[in-house]
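Dataset card, provenance and construction

Sequences and ligand SMILES were collected as paired inputs. For each pair, a complete structure of the chain with the small molecule in place was predicted and serialized as structure tokens. The example below shows a pair involving magnesium ion. Curators did not alter the output after generation; any descriptive sentences attached to a record were derived from the structure itself.
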Amino acid sequence: MNAVFVKVDNKQFGPFTHHELRGLARKGKFTPADLVWDEDDHDWVYAEQLDELKTIFSDDYAPEEHNSRIIAVGGGKGGVGKTVLTASIGVALASQQHQVVMVDADLGGANLHTVMGILEPEYTFFDFYTLNRDSLNEIALETPVENLRLISGACGTLGLANPKYTQKLRFIRQLRTVNAEFLLLDLGAGSSYNVIDFFLAADEGIVVTNPEPMALQESFNFIKICLMRKLKRAFHGDPFVNELLDREEVARPGRMQMTLHQVLEKVREHDERTGDFFEQVLESFKPQLILNMVTKNEDVKEGVAIQAAAAELLAIEVDYLGYITYDQSVRDAVRDLKPFILHDPKSKASQDLAKLVNVKLLGKSMFRSLWQKRKLQKKLQEEKKAYPEIQLLDKAPICSVRCFYWGDCDYQEGGKPCPVRYLEPIFKS
Ligand SMILES: Nc1ncnc2c1ncn2[C@@H]1O[C@H](COP(=O)(O)OP(=O)(O)OP(=O)(O)O)[C@@H](O)[C@H]1O
Ligand SMILES: [Mg+2]
């Protein structure tokens, strides 16, 4: 499915997805007589002339079935649980017979492989970027969990933390060719263009936050920066819209003096049709939200607060998927190099996640979900038994005076496994 550029009154907008154009067509704001860019002919043609757009105008339009659902997991703040949640969502989906590929798109600090107990990935992005391997399919590694593969990041490889734009585009295009029903992208912290572009390229984006004020603020900013980038891209040929979006009252981080509702109003006053397209971008950007590390009941409402702020200030709808309880077993799982849902499928965090995956991501009803949860529990217990225990200490070198660090070491337990260097495989990758 290609997104297309649209030309209205000699102004170029987009690219818009078919779904977005359908939204406009249904309101009578995009017609078969509007001009769209034809990639093959390199010319503007009427929308009705483009075969791939025909279904958009018919009544029996069915949203295009994607081969895969690409879900990005991001959020401004570091350490809020993006990676551990991605891994456990991956396991939960795979355990229900879905083909899943997790992608470690945290280019600066890839560590999803460690959470999955893979200490030295055979292939990483590095092989893809350096054209050692042609396709992402080739670098997807098997994990100990059936139906779950991993495309590992290339942590520690200089130069990859900032791929060139063309490398990024090649990667995004290739994502659609990976054989999987679900592709889960674990993004890095922050809101650099690398992170934002991956978030926007996905079909669905999940923002993870914890209930602390700093994290909430950063996740709201993250959502705002994504939206602004999407709007800037869609209207980059329109100086009026650009000037509005760049205004201090809108663009400045922190308190917004002019809301996106007001911006929309101004765009509409200036030009009715540009306003229609602007409104469509706002309507179709629906980030999802997971509140992680919840310790008390009142925390839960922080998710609703973000929803309200996004509706009021950004004029968009945030889909609050739910919360995951703070749980010591998540930390224990990380220490044991396991996804937490396998480490202890009965823990509170695992149960919260199973419910969220079944009801929100797979759209199962609560009743079916309960039954499904039991089935999932059983499957997870089986997977747990089959999951290899990694004895990192077995990999430790034996402490000796010949060790490089001996002189600086506080332990000096000659003859025993080194209590520190067993961590080397984790830090070295
Ligand atoms: N629900 C939870 N309960 C307890 N601890 C948690 C929970 N979720 C995450 N953690 C802990 O938080 C730490 C950070 O998690 P994680 O690495 O997934 O964060 P991240 O958002 O991916 O960080 P980064 O931005 O650095 O990539 C982990 O050590 C994990 O054990
Ligand atoms: Mg992470």
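Derived descriptions for this record:
The chain has three domains: 4-57, 69-385, 395-428.
The two ends are 36 Å apart (CA to CA).
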